[in-house]
Amino acid sequence: MIDLKTMLLLEFATATFMAIAWMLVWIFCRQIYELKVIAAGFVAVAVGLFLYLQRGPDPSLLRIVTDNMVIKFGLVLWADGLARFLGQRRVFWIGVACLAAQGLSWSAAVIYIPEDLAFRIHASTAFTTVMMALMIRTLAVDRSQPRFLRWITIALLAEYVGASLLQSALVYLHPATVANSRVLSDINTWYFFQGHMFIVGFFICLVFMVGMRLSMDLRDRNTALGREVSIRRRLEQELSASLEGEKTARKEQRQLMRMVSHEFRTPLAAIRYASDMLSVMLPNPEEAVSRRIRGIDEAVSRMTMLIDRFLSGERQEEGVLKIETVDIPVLVREIQQHFDHAGLGSRLSFTGVARPPGFRADVEMLKTVIVNLIDNALKYSGETDPVGIDIAVRDDLLVIEVTDQGIGIPEEEIDRIGLRFYRASNTSGTGGSGLGIHTCKQLVGYHAGSLELRRRKGGGTLARVHLPGAEADLKRPAKQPMAETV
């Protein structure tokens, strides 16, 4: 027959290997953090069994209580770890309360009735029954694990409770088996043998539970991945449909541009033909008439250029800029002649005309910007009010300022001026489409520049253009300096 110490040694070795196994499982499955509690329970049981092995035939009262309490603490950790693992309410503090009651009752029994081993066996049975009942309840209400696995574990726990109750019943019916003994003897080896079988069975059940948990987690992840793949496919289909819609819209836009271009060119061709006929019919026209005919020709050429650049989708895809060195004095002279032809040149005042070395831009676009700004200034000023144009180089930027003494822009509307078709609230009495400033901002933007509009203190508006120097990257907006007081 196996003696008690040999049985304790076997059970200690088994508990130690299981504790190590659970620690390794927890290290490799960190996402299941509850495993560390279960592993700690096996460690506590192994330590308690080791203390049993180390004590002599006549242990002290403190050792009798301590050794048993360490093993009981392992049961508390098992019950709490199982509840955590199955996602239920923790039972740690219930176990601690029962453990405290166990410790007090055992301490009192060891001090006052040290030879009455029966009382301590009954108290231990009561504690074991409560802990096993908590684990049985945890498994009974769980729905995350397979039913057969839960009921096998419940049966295993119930068997251990039954063995504990049987031991108490035998001690109660045959008290002579433990009479006059302070500790357990070889007669109780069978109880530790069935405890050893319980630990092995409980370990196997927990291993299967962890395996099922990992399997279900993997299944859930696969399900989530499947949903994500479906969503991504749907989004891909929507994106493809959106791209097809955009391609169709671009095609329709190009068709519209070609149609508008054709419709604009037809009246322009008629105007140019009429201008040419006037030149033929009037071989020696007066200077004023000749000046007006040249103005018509220049305006038609400029409108044709704008159509070629902005209403042709194919050209816009290739690039709209025609970069060349700008001769500022020549540009100013052409702008002056343009307004002289319209009889408005006397109201213009050019100052600070500079010739920046190597300044490059699209001359026609730059001319269009300045002409549009001056035209706005003339339109919203009095019939005799002057318009100032200052062209200078500041901090490697070409700065063009157009100032007037007209109606100005309401302060709260300045940020909206330049939006397509937007006109200030105080311009209702004057014709316009709201495209002039918007076009200027686009043309300046092609040059990586900026356009700023401000109210003048004395009344009127300041339009300030900043254009980068010759080395600037035209795809990158120019740095706009701090606004000055006007």
Automatic annotation (TrEMBL):
<feature type="transmembrane region" description="Helical">
    <location>
        <begin position="148"/>
        <end position="170"/>
    </location>
</feature>
<keyword id="KW-1133">Transmembrane helix</keyword>
<dbReference type="Pfam" id="PF02518">
    <property type="entry name" value="HATPase_c"/>
</dbReference>
<dbReference type="InterPro" id="IPR003594">
    <property type="entry name" value="HATPase_dom"/>
</dbReference>
<feature type="domain" description="Histidine kinase">
    <location>
        <begin position="259"/>
        <end position="471"/>
    </location>
</feature>
<dbReference type="InterPro" id="IPR005467">
    <property type="entry name" value="His_kinase_dom"/>
</dbReference>
<keyword id="KW-0812">Transmembrane</keyword>
<keyword id="KW-0843">Virulence</keyword>
<dbReference type="InterPro" id="IPR036890">
    <property type="entry name" value="HATPase_C_sf"/>
</dbReference>
<feature type="transmembrane region" description="Helical">
    <location>
        <begin position="91"/>
        <end position="113"/>
    </location>
</feature>
<feature type="transmembrane region" description="Helical">
    <location>
        <begin position="119"/>
        <end position="136"/>
    </location>
</feature>
<feature type="transmembrane region" description="Helical">
    <location>
        <begin position="35"/>
        <end position="54"/>
    </location>
</feature>
<feature type="transmembrane region" description="Helical">
    <location>
        <begin position="60"/>
        <end position="79"/>
    </location>
</feature>
<feature type="transmembrane region" description="Helical">
    <location>
        <begin position="190"/>
        <end position="211"/>
    </location>
</feature>
<keyword id="KW-0597">Phosphoprotein</keyword>
<dbReference type="InterPro" id="IPR004358">
    <property type="entry name" value="Sig_transdc_His_kin-like_C"/>
</dbReference>
<keyword id="KW-0472">Membrane</keyword>
<protein>
    <recommendedName>
        <fullName>histidine kinase</fullName>
        <ecNumber>2.7.13.3</ecNumber>
    </recommendedName>
</protein>
<dbReference type="InterPro" id="IPR003661">
    <property type="entry name" value="HisK_dim/P_dom"/>
</dbReference>
<keyword id="KW-0902">Two-component regulatory system</keyword>
<feature type="transmembrane region" description="Helical">
    <location>
        <begin position="6"/>
        <end position="28"/>
    </location>
</feature>
<keyword id="KW-0808">Transferase</keyword>
<keyword id="KW-1003">Cell membrane</keyword>
<dbReference type="InterPro" id="IPR050980">
    <property type="entry name" value="2C_sensor_his_kinase"/>
</dbReference>
<keyword id="KW-0418">Kinase</keyword>
<dbReference type="Pfam" id="PF00512">
    <property type="entry name" value="HisKA"/>
</dbReference>
<dbReference type="InterPro" id="IPR036097">
    <property type="entry name" value="HisK_dim/P_sf"/>
</dbReference>
<dbReference type="GO" id="GO:0016301">
    <property type="term" value="F:kinase activity"/>
</dbReference>
